[in-house]
Protein backbone atom coordinates (compact mmCIF):
# COMPACT_ATOMS: atom_id res chain seq x y z
CA UNK A 1 0.00 0.00 0.00
CA UNK A 2 1.37 3.40 -1.01
CA UNK A 3 1.94 5.82 1.89
CA UNK A 4 -0.29 8.87 2.07
CA UNK A 5 1.11 12.02 0.51
CA UNK A 6 2.14 14.89 2.76
CA UNK A 7 -0.88 16.79 1.39
CA UNK A 8 -3.35 14.13 2.49
CA UNK A 9 -1.99 13.31 5.95
CA UNK A 10 -3.88 16.20 7.59
CA UNK A 11 -6.99 15.98 5.41
CA UNK A 12 -9.48 15.50 8.25
CA UNK A 13 -7.68 18.00 10.49
CA UNK A 14 -8.22 20.69 7.83
CA UNK A 15 -11.91 19.84 7.54
CA UNK A 16 -12.23 20.10 11.33
CA UNK A 17 -10.36 23.41 11.26
CA UNK A 18 -12.82 24.80 8.73
CA UNK A 19 -15.73 23.70 10.91
CA UNK A 20 -14.23 25.60 13.87
CA UNK A 21 -13.85 28.69 11.68
CA UNK A 22 -17.49 28.48 10.65
CA UNK A 23 -18.67 28.07 14.23
CA UNK A 24 -16.45 30.92 15.47
CA UNK A 25 -17.55 33.30 12.72
CA UNK A 26 -21.19 32.38 12.19
CA UNK A 27 -22.22 30.65 15.39
CA UNK A 28 -23.60 27.62 13.54
CA UNK A 29 -25.46 25.09 15.64
CA UNK A 30 -24.51 21.42 15.48
CA UNK A 31 -27.49 20.78 13.23
CA UNK A 32 -26.57 23.66 10.89
CA UNK A 33 -22.95 22.55 10.84
CA UNK A 34 -23.94 18.99 9.95
CA UNK A 35 -25.91 20.36 7.01
CA UNK A 36 -22.94 22.37 5.74
CA UNK A 37 -20.97 20.72 2.93
CA UNK A 38 -17.22 21.19 2.62
CA UNK A 39 -15.93 19.88 -0.72
CA UNK A 40 -12.27 19.96 -1.84
CA UNK A 41 -11.67 21.54 -5.25
CA UNK A 42 -8.94 20.32 -7.64
CA UNK A 43 -7.58 18.01 -4.97
CA UNK A 44 -5.75 14.73 -5.51
CA UNK A 45 -4.96 12.66 -2.41
CA UNK A 46 -1.77 11.28 -3.97
CA UNK A 47 -0.58 14.48 -5.69
CA UNK A 48 3.23 14.31 -5.32
CA UNK A 49 3.93 18.04 -4.93
CA UNK A 50 2.92 20.20 -1.99
CA UNK A 51 -0.13 22.31 -2.71
CA UNK A 52 0.29 26.04 -2.10
CA UNK A 53 -3.30 26.21 -0.88
CA UNK A 54 -6.11 23.83 -0.06
CA UNK A 55 -9.29 25.07 -1.71
CA UNK A 56 -12.83 24.09 -0.67
CA UNK A 57 -16.36 24.81 -1.77
CA UNK A 58 -18.51 25.66 1.26
CA UNK A 59 -22.28 25.11 0.88
CA UNK A 60 -24.42 26.38 3.77
CA UNK A 61 -27.94 25.07 4.43
CA UNK A 62 -29.14 28.61 5.24
CA UNK A 63 -28.59 32.26 4.43
CA UNK A 64 -25.67 33.40 6.62
CA UNK A 65 -25.68 37.05 5.58
CA UNK A 66 -27.67 38.06 8.68
CA UNK A 67 -25.63 36.05 11.16
CA UNK A 68 -23.63 37.98 13.78
CA UNK A 69 -20.04 38.30 12.73
CA UNK A 70 -16.97 38.59 14.90
CA UNK A 71 -14.06 40.92 14.21
CA UNK A 72 -12.56 38.36 11.83
CA UNK A 73 -15.22 39.18 9.26
CA UNK A 74 -14.90 42.95 9.63
CA UNK A 75 -11.25 43.17 8.73
CA UNK A 76 -9.70 45.37 6.07
CA UNK A 77 -10.33 44.08 2.58
CA UNK A 78 -13.68 42.47 3.45
CA UNK A 79 -17.11 43.31 2.07
CA UNK A 80 -20.51 42.34 3.52
CA UNK A 81 -21.87 38.93 2.59
CA UNK A 82 -24.73 39.49 0.14
CA UNK A 83 -28.23 38.47 1.16
CA UNK A 84 -29.14 34.97 0.09
CA UNK A 85 -25.56 33.81 -0.45
CA UNK A 86 -25.06 30.19 0.56
CA UNK A 87 -22.00 29.03 -1.38
CA UNK A 88 -18.44 30.25 -1.00
CA UNK A 89 -14.81 29.36 -1.52
CA UNK A 90 -12.52 28.76 1.45
CA UNK A 91 -8.77 28.90 0.83
CA UNK A 92 -6.40 27.49 3.44
CA UNK A 93 -2.72 28.33 2.98
CA UNK A 94 -0.44 25.30 3.23
CA UNK A 95 2.19 25.94 5.90
CA UNK A 96 4.50 23.44 4.16
CA UNK A 97 4.26 24.95 0.67
CA UNK A 98 7.62 25.07 -1.11
CA UNK A 99 9.11 28.55 -1.27
CA UNK A 100 6.09 30.37 0.21
CA UNK A 101 6.57 32.42 3.38
CA UNK A 102 3.52 32.50 5.58
CA UNK A 103 3.98 35.69 7.62
CA UNK A 104 2.06 37.98 5.25
CA UNK A 105 0.90 35.73 2.42
CA UNK A 106 -2.80 35.91 3.34
CA UNK A 107 -2.63 39.66 3.95
CA UNK A 108 -0.82 40.11 0.63
CA UNK A 109 -3.45 38.14 -1.29
CA UNK A 110 -6.36 39.99 0.33
CA UNK A 111 -4.71 43.37 -0.31
CA UNK A 112 -4.06 42.53 -3.96
CA UNK A 113 -7.65 41.32 -4.35
CA UNK A 114 -8.81 44.64 -2.93
CA UNK A 115 -6.71 46.62 -5.40
CA UNK A 116 -7.55 44.39 -8.37
CA UNK A 117 -11.25 44.69 -7.61
CA UNK A 118 -10.97 48.48 -7.76
CA UNK A 119 -8.76 48.40 -10.86
CA UNK A 120 -11.15 46.14 -12.78
CA UNK A 121 -14.49 47.48 -11.57
CA UNK A 122 -15.27 48.70 -15.08
CA UNK A 123 -15.21 45.17 -16.49
CA UNK A 124 -18.49 43.27 -16.61
CA UNK A 125 -19.14 40.74 -15.28
CA UNK A 126 -17.00 41.50 -12.24
CA UNK A 127 -14.12 39.03 -12.44
CA UNK A 128 -12.31 39.52 -9.10
CA UNK A 129 -13.53 37.40 -6.14
CA UNK A 130 -14.85 39.41 -3.19
CA UNK A 131 -13.39 38.66 0.23
CA UNK A 132 -15.81 38.12 3.13
CA UNK A 133 -13.35 37.13 5.85
CA UNK A 134 -9.76 36.11 6.41
CA UNK A 135 -7.25 35.16 9.05
CA UNK A 136 -3.43 35.36 8.93
CA UNK A 137 -1.21 32.32 9.21
CA UNK A 138 0.31 32.02 12.68
CA UNK A 139 2.21 29.21 14.43
CA UNK A 140 -0.26 26.36 14.74
CA UNK A 141 -3.00 28.07 12.67
CA UNK A 142 -3.49 27.99 8.92
CA UNK A 143 -4.15 31.22 7.10
CA UNK A 144 -7.57 31.38 5.47
CA UNK A 145 -9.72 33.42 3.11
CA UNK A 146 -13.48 33.16 2.65
CA UNK A 147 -14.38 34.52 -0.76
CA UNK A 148 -16.79 34.42 -3.68
CA UNK A 149 -17.63 31.21 -5.46
CA UNK A 150 -17.18 32.65 -8.94
CA UNK A 151 -19.44 31.65 -11.85
CA UNK A 152 -18.18 30.06 -15.03
CA UNK A 153 -16.23 27.03 -16.17
CA UNK A 154 -12.51 26.47 -16.88
CA UNK A 155 -11.26 27.50 -20.30
CA UNK A 156 -9.95 23.94 -20.78
CA UNK A 157 -9.51 23.24 -24.51
CA UNK A 158 -9.99 26.74 -25.87
CA UNK A 159 -6.23 27.27 -26.20
CA UNK A 160 -5.65 23.81 -27.62
CA UNK A 161 -3.69 24.07 -30.92
CA UNK A 162 -6.70 22.62 -32.72
CA UNK A 163 -9.10 25.15 -31.19
CA UNK A 164 -10.76 28.02 -33.03
CA UNK A 165 -8.36 30.92 -33.63
CA UNK A 166 -11.25 33.40 -33.60
CA UNK A 167 -12.39 32.19 -30.20
CA UNK A 168 -8.80 32.43 -28.94
CA UNK A 169 -8.57 36.01 -30.21
CA UNK A 170 -11.77 36.94 -28.42
CA UNK A 171 -10.47 35.55 -25.10
CA UNK A 172 -7.06 37.17 -25.63
CA UNK A 173 -8.76 40.51 -26.25
CA UNK A 174 -10.56 40.22 -22.92
CA UNK A 175 -7.29 39.27 -21.21
CA UNK A 176 -5.59 42.32 -22.73
CA UNK A 177 -8.34 44.57 -21.40
CA UNK A 178 -7.89 43.09 -17.92
CA UNK A 179 -4.13 43.60 -18.10
CA UNK A 180 -4.63 47.21 -19.23
CA UNK A 181 -6.84 47.82 -16.20
CA UNK A 182 -4.24 46.43 -13.80
CA UNK A 183 -1.48 48.50 -15.41
CA UNK A 184 -3.41 51.76 -15.42
CA UNK A 185 -4.64 51.60 -11.83
CA UNK A 186 -3.25 54.38 -9.63
CA UNK A 187 -1.80 52.73 -6.52
CA UNK A 188 -2.67 54.25 -3.13
CA UNK A 189 0.01 56.59 -1.81
CA UNK A 190 0.36 54.37 1.26
CA UNK A 191 2.10 51.77 -0.95
CA UNK A 192 5.64 53.08 -1.14
CA UNK A 193 7.76 50.08 -2.11
CA UNK A 194 8.23 47.16 -4.46
CA UNK A 195 7.22 43.67 -3.32
CA UNK A 196 4.31 42.43 -1.25
CA UNK A 197 1.49 44.10 0.66
CA UNK A 198 -0.22 44.04 4.04
CA UNK A 199 -2.54 46.23 6.11
CA UNK A 200 -1.53 48.68 8.83
CA UNK A 201 -3.49 49.16 12.05
CA UNK A 202 -5.85 51.63 10.36
CA UNK A 203 -6.62 49.23 7.50
CA UNK A 204 -4.53 51.06 4.90
CA UNK A 205 -2.67 48.92 2.39
CA UNK A 206 1.09 49.25 2.81
CA UNK A 207 4.21 47.63 1.38
CA UNK A 208 5.48 44.42 2.97
CA UNK A 209 7.66 41.40 2.26
CA UNK A 210 7.02 39.43 -0.92
CA UNK A 211 5.54 36.06 0.12
CA UNK A 212 7.14 34.11 -2.74
CA UNK A 213 10.55 35.46 -1.70
CA UNK A 214 10.39 36.02 2.05
CA UNK A 215 12.10 39.41 1.75
CA UNK A 216 11.26 43.02 1.01
CA UNK A 217 9.71 45.46 0.59
CA UNK A 218 12.32 47.30 -1.44
CA UNK A 219 12.67 50.98 -2.19
CA UNK A 220 13.44 50.60 -5.89
CA UNK A 221 13.30 48.12 -8.74
CA UNK A 222 17.09 47.79 -8.57
CA UNK A 223 16.89 46.94 -4.87
CA UNK A 224 14.14 44.40 -5.48
CA UNK A 225 16.30 42.39 -7.87
CA UNK A 226 19.41 42.88 -5.75
CA UNK A 227 17.55 41.53 -2.76
CA UNK A 228 16.07 38.61 -4.67
CA UNK A 229 19.40 37.63 -6.19
CA UNK A 230 20.92 37.52 -2.73
CA UNK A 231 17.99 35.46 -1.43
CA UNK A 232 18.46 33.00 -4.31
CA UNK A 233 22.13 32.59 -3.44
CA UNK A 234 21.28 31.93 0.21
CA UNK A 235 18.55 29.51 -0.77
CA UNK A 236 21.02 27.19 -2.55
CA UNK A 237 23.79 27.58 0.02
CA UNK A 238 23.10 24.22 1.65
CA UNK A 239 21.94 22.42 -1.48
CA UNK A 240 24.22 19.37 -1.91
CA UNK A 241 24.41 19.87 -5.68
CA UNK A 242 24.62 23.64 -5.98
CA UNK A 243 26.49 24.40 -2.73
CA UNK A 244 25.76 28.08 -3.05
CA UNK A 245 27.58 28.00 -6.42
CA UNK A 246 30.85 27.98 -4.47
CA UNK A 247 32.79 26.22 -7.23
CA UNK A 248 34.49 27.24 -10.46
CA UNK A 249 34.37 30.87 -9.32
CA UNK A 250 30.65 31.16 -10.10
CA UNK A 251 29.52 32.69 -6.81
CA UNK A 252 32.16 35.41 -7.10
CA UNK A 253 30.99 36.23 -10.62
CA UNK A 254 27.37 36.49 -9.45
CA UNK A 255 28.34 38.70 -6.52
CA UNK A 256 30.40 40.88 -8.85
CA UNK A 257 27.38 41.26 -11.13
CA UNK A 258 25.14 42.21 -8.19
CA UNK A 259 27.66 44.85 -7.11
CA UNK A 260 28.74 46.33 -10.46
CA UNK A 261 26.55 44.97 -13.25
CA UNK A 262 23.04 45.31 -11.88
CA UNK A 263 22.91 49.14 -12.01
CA UNK A 264 24.02 49.05 -15.67
CA UNK A 265 21.23 46.64 -16.59
CA UNK A 266 18.67 49.15 -15.33
CA UNK A 267 20.33 52.24 -16.78
CA UNK A 268 18.51 51.75 -20.10
CA UNK A 269 15.10 51.30 -18.46
CA UNK A 270 13.48 54.77 -18.38
CA UNK A 271 10.37 53.33 -16.72
CA UNK A 272 12.21 51.74 -13.78
CA UNK A 273 10.13 53.79 -11.31
CA UNK A 274 6.86 52.40 -12.70
CA UNK A 275 4.88 49.97 -10.54
CA UNK A 276 1.72 48.00 -11.17
CA UNK A 277 -0.46 45.24 -9.76
CA UNK A 278 1.21 42.03 -10.91
CA UNK A 279 -0.85 38.84 -10.87
CA UNK A 280 2.21 36.70 -11.79
CA UNK A 281 0.09 33.65 -12.71
CA UNK A 282 -2.24 35.22 -15.29
CA UNK A 283 -2.82 32.12 -17.43
CA UNK A 284 -5.77 30.21 -18.83
CA UNK A 285 -5.57 27.88 -15.79
CA UNK A 286 -6.73 30.76 -13.58
CA UNK A 287 -9.53 32.02 -15.78
CA UNK A 288 -13.21 31.04 -15.90
CA UNK A 289 -15.67 31.89 -18.67
CA UNK A 290 -19.31 31.57 -19.65
CA UNK A 291 -19.58 29.20 -22.68
CA UNK A 292 -22.87 30.79 -23.78
CA UNK A 293 -21.70 34.40 -23.85
CA UNK A 294 -18.00 33.77 -24.37
CA UNK A 295 -17.24 36.27 -21.60
CA UNK A 296 -14.54 35.76 -19.00
CA UNK A 297 -16.18 35.52 -15.58
CA UNK A 298 -13.24 35.23 -13.15
CA UNK A 299 -9.53 35.79 -12.71
CA UNK A 300 -8.49 33.55 -9.81
CA UNK A 301 -5.52 32.70 -7.55
CA UNK A 302 -3.59 35.80 -6.49
CA UNK A 303 -1.13 33.81 -4.36
CA UNK A 304 1.97 34.99 -6.26
CA UNK A 305 0.77 38.56 -6.77
CA UNK A 306 2.85 41.60 -5.89
CA UNK A 307 3.62 45.21 -6.74
CA UNK A 308 6.46 45.35 -9.25
CA UNK A 309 7.42 46.81 -12.62
CA UNK A 310 4.79 46.15 -15.35
CA UNK A 311 7.37 44.09 -17.26
CA UNK A 312 7.32 41.43 -14.56
CA UNK A 313 3.88 40.19 -15.64
CA UNK A 314 5.35 39.22 -19.00
CA UNK A 315 8.10 37.21 -17.28
CA UNK A 316 5.68 35.11 -15.22
CA UNK A 317 2.30 35.02 -16.98
CA UNK A 318 0.52 34.19 -20.25
CA UNK A 319 1.90 30.67 -20.74
CA UNK A 320 5.14 29.29 -22.17
CA UNK A 321 3.94 28.53 -25.72
CA UNK A 322 4.11 32.06 -27.07
CA UNK A 323 2.77 34.44 -24.46
CA UNK A 324 5.66 34.78 -22.03
CA UNK A 325 8.67 37.04 -22.60
CA UNK A 326 11.98 35.44 -21.66
CA UNK A 327 15.48 36.64 -21.09
CA UNK A 328 18.45 35.73 -23.27
CA UNK A 329 19.11 32.06 -23.92
CA UNK A 330 21.61 30.17 -26.02
CA UNK A 331 20.80 29.64 -29.70
CA UNK A 332 22.86 26.45 -29.99
CA UNK A 333 19.83 24.34 -30.80
CA UNK A 334 16.60 24.75 -32.79
CA UNK A 335 14.52 25.37 -29.66
CA UNK A 336 16.81 28.19 -28.53
CA UNK A 337 16.77 29.79 -31.97
CA UNK A 338 12.97 29.65 -32.08
CA UNK A 339 12.66 31.29 -28.66
CA UNK A 340 15.17 33.91 -29.73
CA UNK A 341 13.09 34.69 -32.81
CA UNK A 342 9.95 34.97 -30.67
CA UNK A 343 11.77 37.28 -28.27
CA UNK A 344 12.79 39.56 -31.14
CA UNK A 345 9.23 39.58 -32.52
CA UNK A 346 7.90 40.65 -29.13
CA UNK A 347 10.59 43.32 -28.73
CA UNK A 348 9.81 44.88 -32.10
CA UNK A 349 6.08 44.13 -32.18
CA UNK A 350 6.57 42.72 -35.68
CA UNK A 351 6.14 39.02 -36.38
CA UNK A 352 7.69 37.22 -39.38
CA UNK A 353 5.50 36.60 -42.43
CA UNK A 354 4.75 33.86 -43.09
CA UNK A 355 4.81 32.63 -39.52
CA UNK A 356 7.44 29.94 -38.82
CA UNK A 357 6.53 26.29 -38.35
CA UNK A 358 6.68 25.43 -34.63
CA UNK A 359 9.78 23.49 -33.57
CA UNK A 360 9.24 20.07 -32.02
CA UNK A 361 11.09 19.67 -28.71
CA UNK A 362 11.55 16.83 -26.25
CA UNK A 363 8.63 18.36 -24.34
CA UNK A 364 6.34 18.54 -27.35
CA UNK A 365 5.54 21.36 -29.82
CA UNK A 366 7.38 24.63 -29.35
CA UNK A 367 6.04 28.13 -29.94
CA UNK A 368 2.45 28.46 -31.08
CA UNK A 369 3.21 31.30 -33.49
CA UNK A 370 -0.41 31.98 -34.41
CA UNK A 371 -1.34 32.36 -30.75
CA UNK A 372 1.72 34.50 -30.03
CA UNK A 373 0.90 36.90 -32.86
CA UNK A 374 -2.76 37.02 -31.85
CA UNK A 375 -1.70 37.98 -28.31
CA UNK A 376 0.57 40.72 -29.64
CA UNK A 377 -2.22 42.03 -31.87
CA UNK A 378 -4.67 42.24 -28.95
CA UNK A 379 -2.09 43.95 -26.72
CA UNK A 380 -1.57 46.55 -29.43
CA UNK A 381 -5.30 46.98 -30.03
CA UNK A 382 -5.95 47.70 -26.35
CA UNK A 383 -2.86 49.93 -25.96
CA UNK A 384 -1.34 47.70 -23.28
CA UNK A 385 2.18 48.43 -22.09
CA UNK A 386 4.08 45.47 -23.54
CA UNK A 387 7.63 44.34 -24.42
CA UNK A 388 7.69 46.37 -27.66
CA UNK A 389 6.79 49.55 -25.74
CA UNK A 390 8.93 49.01 -22.61
CA UNK A 391 12.36 50.34 -23.55
CA UNK A 392 15.11 48.28 -21.90
CA UNK A 393 12.90 45.30 -21.06
CA UNK A 394 15.40 42.95 -22.73
CA UNK A 395 18.08 43.77 -20.16
CA UNK A 396 15.59 43.52 -17.31
CA UNK A 397 14.54 40.11 -18.64
CA UNK A 398 18.18 39.01 -18.67
CA UNK A 399 18.44 39.81 -14.96
CA UNK A 400 15.28 37.81 -14.36
CA UNK A 401 16.76 34.94 -16.38
CA UNK A 402 19.83 35.03 -14.14
CA UNK A 403 17.60 34.98 -11.08
CA UNK A 404 15.87 31.83 -12.29
CA UNK A 405 19.17 30.17 -13.23
CA UNK A 406 20.54 30.66 -9.71
CA UNK A 407 17.86 28.41 -8.19
CA UNK A 408 16.94 25.70 -10.75
CA UNK A 409 13.64 24.19 -9.66
CA UNK A 410 14.53 20.56 -10.43
CA UNK A 411 17.50 20.72 -8.05
CA UNK A 412 15.93 22.62 -5.17
CA UNK A 413 12.37 21.29 -5.03
CA UNK A 414 12.33 18.59 -2.37
CA UNK A 415 9.33 16.80 -3.86
CA UNK A 416 10.94 16.59 -7.30
CA UNK A 417 14.17 15.29 -5.78
CA UNK A 418 12.28 12.74 -3.73
CA UNK A 419 10.68 11.36 -6.90
CA UNK A 420 13.91 11.45 -8.92
CA UNK A 421 16.54 9.66 -6.88
CA UNK A 422 18.81 8.61 -9.75
CA UNK A 423 22.16 10.20 -8.91
CA UNK A 424 23.29 10.18 -12.52
CA UNK A 425 20.25 12.22 -13.55
CA UNK A 426 20.80 14.64 -10.70
CA UNK A 427 24.41 15.20 -11.73
CA UNK A 428 23.29 15.74 -15.32
CA UNK A 429 20.80 18.35 -14.10
CA UNK A 430 23.61 20.02 -12.17
CA UNK A 431 25.81 20.19 -15.27
CA UNK A 432 22.94 21.67 -17.31
CA UNK A 433 22.18 24.21 -14.59
CA UNK A 434 25.82 25.29 -14.41
CA UNK A 435 26.07 25.61 -18.19
CA UNK A 436 22.96 27.76 -18.31
CA UNK A 437 24.03 30.02 -15.44
CA UNK A 438 27.53 30.50 -16.84
CA UNK A 439 26.12 31.24 -20.30
CA UNK A 440 23.81 33.94 -18.91
CA UNK A 441 26.67 35.46 -16.89
CA UNK A 442 28.86 35.57 -19.99
CA UNK A 443 26.07 37.13 -22.01
CA UNK A 444 25.73 40.01 -19.57
CA UNK A 445 29.49 40.47 -19.39
CA UNK A 446 30.37 38.63 -16.19
Report the biggest beta sheet as strand number plus sense, adding barrel if it closes: 5 strands, antiparallel
User: Which CATH class of the largest domain is shown?
Assistant: Alpha Beta
Shape summary: globular
Annotated CATH homologous superfamily of the largest domain: Aminoglycoside phosphotransferase (APH), C-terminal lobe
Percent of residues in beta strands?
5-15%
Question: How helix-rich are the residues, as a percent range?
Answer: 25-40%
Tally of DSSP helical segments: 13
Low-confidence stretches: none
Q: Which fold name is given in CATH as the topology of the largest domain?
A: Aminoglycoside 3'-phosphotransferase, Chain: A, domain 2
Please describe what this structure looks like.
With 446 residues, the protein is α+β, with helices and mostly antiparallel strands. The protein has two domains: 144 residues, Phosphorylase Kinase, domain 1 (2-Layer Sandwich); 284 residues, Aminoglycoside phosphotransferase (APH), C-terminal lobe (Aminoglycoside 3'-phosphotransferase, Chain: A, domain 2, Alpha-Beta Complex), CATH 3.90.1200.10. It has 13 helices and 14 strands. The chain has a five-stranded antiparallel sheet with strand order 1-2-3-5-4, sandwiched between helices. Strand 13 and strand 14 form a beta hairpin. Helix 5 runs antiparallel to helix 6 and helix 5 packs parallel to helix 10. The longest helix is centred in the C-terminal third of the chain and has 21 residues. The protein is globular and about 65 Å long. The mean pLDDT is 93. This is Phosphotransferase enzyme family-domain-containing protein. It holds the Pfam family APH.
Amino acid sequence: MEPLSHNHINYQARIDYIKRLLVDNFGLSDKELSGTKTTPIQYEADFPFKYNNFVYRISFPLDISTRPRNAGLKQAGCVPIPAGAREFIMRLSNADAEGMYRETRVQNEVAILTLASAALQHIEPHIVPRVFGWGPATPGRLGWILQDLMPGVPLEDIFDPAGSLEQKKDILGQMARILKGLQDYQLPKSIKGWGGLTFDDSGAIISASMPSVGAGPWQSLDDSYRGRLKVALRRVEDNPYLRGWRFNGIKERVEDFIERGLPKQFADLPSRQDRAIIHADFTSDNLLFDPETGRLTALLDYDFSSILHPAYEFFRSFGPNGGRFTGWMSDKDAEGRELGALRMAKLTGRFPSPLPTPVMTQNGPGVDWQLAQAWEDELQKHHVNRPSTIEGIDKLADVDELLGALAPWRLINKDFLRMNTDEGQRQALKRMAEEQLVAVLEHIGF
